[in-house]
Amino acid sequence: MTDRPKEIQGDAQWRTAGDRIQTLLDATAAGGAAARERAEQLVREVVELYGEGLARIVGTVDDPAVMERLAGDDLVASLLLVHGLHPHDLSRRVSDALDRVRPYLGSHGGDVHLLDVDGDTVRLQFAGSCRSCPSSAVTLELAVQDAIRAAAPEVSSIEVVTAEAESSVIPADSLLAKVRSNGGSAWHQVPDIADLTSGEVGGFLVEGTVVLACRVGEALYAYRDHCPGCDGSLAGAELRGAVLRCPRCHAHFDVVHAGGGLDDATAHLDPIPLLERDGVLSLAMPAEPLGAPA
């Protein structure tokens, strides 16, 4: 694995700081209720102290361009949100988050439209050729969930409206229910995938799962190493343009559009979300590979 710049390592570290703080608080429970209460009070005092300092700093900023730069930094933006100092309202933050993830959705043949924001509920409509592809739907949900959670943690539910105007409310915490039912999912940094050249296919072992990564021009795509045509590995597969050819059964798949089968429309590869997070390419790997038999 290549070395990452210290600032990137720092961004990744701070992104998980909340989880580490919660783990430390949970550990204080071993000392009894009084110890836990004192630890929580300490955290509250520190948060309030730095919150007051941050509020005074923001109060001295009268240049909108400076505030935009602050709001554009993920770490600073998260602190501004905690203390109610973020310059953008909920609707603007959700819209900006979707704009950031929209190129990735497009790479999988999909898109998402923000219909409205009502209180802490966001109404979206997915579009594109991969709406009917189950594994692509999971890919889109992972990407959108991650973007919205980072930009607007106060969102409690996301209402997904179909093109036929049917709707279903999906609580934010269960947006990834299809993935969690297979044992959970977590992001793993895979900077080596960035070294692939255009037209190159590479295999990577990530958390015990072999992942097939492809580069088409400037874009990168990742799939589980499994051919639905012959139920075998795709090791040795050739990539011509956007078409991946299985070396065994010679089935063809469109890697740009969610791995759709070109010989059999019902067969498709299992895409794995591949996003740049904190400046590092990362994969969302389920505990049990997407598309694996139950």
TrEMBL record:
<keyword id="KW-0411">Iron-sulfur</keyword>
<dbReference type="GO" id="GO:0051537">
    <property type="term" value="F:2 iron, 2 sulfur cluster binding"/>
</dbReference>
<protein>
    <recommendedName>
        <fullName>Rieske domain-containing protein</fullName>
    </recommendedName>
</protein>
<keyword id="KW-0001">2Fe-2S</keyword>
<dbReference type="Pfam" id="PF01106">
    <property type="entry name" value="NifU"/>
</dbReference>
<dbReference type="InterPro" id="IPR001075">
    <property type="entry name" value="NIF_FeS_clus_asmbl_NifU_C"/>
</dbReference>
<feature type="domain" description="Rieske">
    <location>
        <begin position="187"/>
        <end position="283"/>
    </location>
</feature>
<keyword id="KW-0479">Metal-binding</keyword>
<dbReference type="InterPro" id="IPR034904">
    <property type="entry name" value="FSCA_dom_sf"/>
</dbReference>
<dbReference type="GO" id="GO:0005506">
    <property type="term" value="F:iron ion binding"/>
</dbReference>
<comment type="function">
    <text>May be involved in the formation or repair of [Fe-S] clusters present in iron-sulfur proteins.</text>
</comment>
<keyword id="KW-0408">Iron</keyword>
<dbReference type="GO" id="GO:0016226">
    <property type="term" value="P:iron-sulfur cluster assembly"/>
</dbReference>
<dbReference type="GO" id="GO:0004497">
    <property type="term" value="F:monooxygenase activity"/>
</dbReference>
<dbReference type="InterPro" id="IPR036922">
    <property type="entry name" value="Rieske_2Fe-2S_sf"/>
</dbReference>
<dbReference type="GO" id="GO:0016705">
    <property type="term" value="F:oxidoreductase activity, acting on paired donors, with incorporation or reduction of molecular oxygen"/>
</dbReference>
<dbReference type="InterPro" id="IPR017941">
    <property type="entry name" value="Rieske_2Fe-2S"/>
</dbReference>
